[in-house]
Request: fold
Amino acid sequence: MHRSRSPLVLALIALLVVAAAVLAAGCSADAPQPRWEKVTSGRFTGAGTERLDLGTLYLTGQVRLAWDLSGPNDARAEFTLEAMRSTGANASEGHGASVRSWKENFAPQSNAALALTLEPDNYRVTLTQRLSRGASADYAGTFTLYTQKLD
Reply:
């Protein structure tokens, strides 16, 4: 008596296994990596503390700064990326990120040296290299600012 049900039960089990495999494959896929758009680029001269005004730029979501710097082993500088936007007649809102060259997370060549998360809007952007007290040398090199490409 139980034999008449077994092909049906086997078919249902096979169907559940196939459905589970399809769902697992769809769920296990990693989220797509963000696509990036170049916003601006420039260079540090290596001639001391520098505050570079990158202008007013439209930035969306994630923002990252890539750089290729060179300098002596004893160079000690703090790098700061700041983005300010106007929120009213006399009010503004700022975001910033910084890294120090003497800390272990510093990389003179990096595709994501500094990063910010922003609401899409126009921002006044500055990039600063400030020498540490007593430092006699700093970094020279190029940088590129990217913003996340929204679809």
